[in-house]
Specification:
Elements (H helix, E strand, L loop, with lengths): L4 E6 L4 H12 L4 E8 L7 E4 L2 E4 L1 E2 L10 E4 L3 H13 L3 E4 L15 H4 L10 E3 L3 H17 L1 E10 L5 H15 L11 H6 L29 H14 L5 E8 L6 E9 L5 H10 L3 E3 L11 H4 L5 E8 L6 E8 L3 H23 L1
The chain binds NADP nicotinamide-adenine-dinucleotide phosphate.
NADP nicotinamide-adenine-dinucleotide phosphate binds next to helix 1, helix 2, helix 5 and helix 10.
Length: about 350
């Protein structure tokens, strides 16, 4: 047997980075060194990876020496600068930012749909899709294989942690400030008046006791970047360049767990029984669907879970080729860290086999 590969978590201090540390700890035996990297602000911090205490190193070209696989959990602009540096040193990079996802020479991988794509990476870079798209893919891939997916209309209900540690802390701070305010939310402008303008960041408006129909930055014609990602990244991962997608992304006052209402249309009529049979057998999908007993997917029940949960499955009354369903996934797990770990597993096996 060859040496064990060395792995880095780049952005180890962030909300995704903290889940990465937990998941790497659970498979610690697969790896040689585990290196933790973040900004110069965090250099010298001591963080846990299971029982091990590891000092955080500041990002720089030298920190990638000796690393085989690096998980990048950084903002887009920081990934844009440092991913090519690591890749040029022969590191296989799995990047969770949006920067490289639509590059034709960068595979966008979700193992339930296109595991083989991880093995063809001309730039040494693999991209992880955005959390909203990843929550959908296992269900869509299974249904597409059997019934031929033609189009989908999606409405998301996205958690505050999708905006990183800043988003999560902002939601908690807003909730704290509103606690004790009697009947707040029942008078025009009362939530804004209590919170003040400081609490508009980072969502652009208060999130506590509210929903905000804007996730990501504004793009042409009134779309947001998140809505375009759902369309473009789903097409790329599923290998369906002509898939018709309509998407509206909404932020809700939930800590962790992205939910989505999906109306999906197929080549042929699909019954609920057929859909259930396919989804019960699908990898990465848990069918949680007993509405009469109040059993359906919800974000509070998705936290920390590996798979994606699907429920409220119905055949559309007026569209026999269409299904309605509700999908929930932990945005920090399948939506980010877990998917990256699963992709790294494919690469680790490939690199270990090459050593043998
Ligand atoms: N949150 C989600 O649900 C989710 C889901 C899918 C994908 N993603 C993507 O995953 C990435 C990380 O997201 P997150 O939610 O974990 O963000 P986060 O909580 O804000 O963490 C950001 C991380 O990046 C590091 N960082 C920031 N500026 C840096 C710089 N100039 N040099 C080196 N390190 C720097 C931070 O280190 P310091 O602590 O030292 O500043 C921190 O470790 C983003 O690309 C995001 O789009 C997030």
């Amino acid at each position: 047997m060859g040496r064990k590969l060395n792995v880095a978590i780049v952005g180890a201090t962030g909300v995704v980075g903290s889940i990465m540390r937990r998941l790497i700890a659970a498979e610690r035996g697969n790896w040689g060194e585990v290196r933790l990297i973040a900004s110069a602000r965090s250099a010298g911090k001591l963080l846990q990876v299971g029982d091990e205490t590891i000092e955080v190193q500041a990002i720089g070209a030298d920190v990638f020496d000796g690393i085989d696989i690096a998980h990048f959990d950084l903002p887009d602009d920081v990934s844009a600068e440092w991913v090519p540096v690591a890749a040029a040193k022969g590191v296989v990079v799995i990047d969770k930012s949006g920067y490289f996802r639509m590059d034709p020479d960068v595979p966008l991988v979700c193992r339930e749909a296109n595991a083989e794509a991880a093995l063809h990476r001309p730039k040494g870079i693999i991209a992880n899709a955005n959390c909203t798209t990843l929550a959908l893919i296992p269900t869509l891939a299974a249904l597409d294989e059997h019934f031929g997916l033609v189009s989908m209309s999606v409405a998301s209900y996205q958690a505050a942690s999708g905006s990183g540690k800043e988003g999560l802390e902002a939601l908690y701070a807003q909730v704290q400030k509103l606690i004790g305010a009697d009947r707040v939310g029942t008078e025009t402008g009362d939530v804004r008046a209590i919170l003040g303008e400081d609490f508009n960041a980072p969502f652009g408006a208060p999130l506590a006791l509210n929903v905000v129909p804007k996730v990501g930055g504004w793009k042409d014609d009134g779309w947001t970047s998140e809505e375009l990602k759902v369309r473009n990244e789903s097409r790329k991962i599923l290998g369906l360049p002509d898939l018709k997608v309509a998407s509206t992304c909404v932020r809700v006052p939930v800590a962790v767990g992205h939910s989505q209402v999906v109306h999906a249309t197929f080549d042929r009529e699909v019954t609920v029984d057929e859909a259930r049979r396919v989804l019960n057998a699908a990898e990465g999908v848990d069918v949680v669907d007993d509405p009469a007993n109040m059993v359906f997917p919800m974000p509070i029940d998705s936290v920390g879970k590996g798979g994606t949960q699907v429920g409220r499955i119905r055949q559309s009354i007026d569209f026999p080729n269409s299904l309605e369903f509700f999908v929930v996934a932990d945005n920090l797990m399948k939506g980010a860290a877990l998917n990256s770990i699963e992709t790294a597993d494919l690469v680790r096996r490939e690199l270990e086999a090459a050593q043998a």
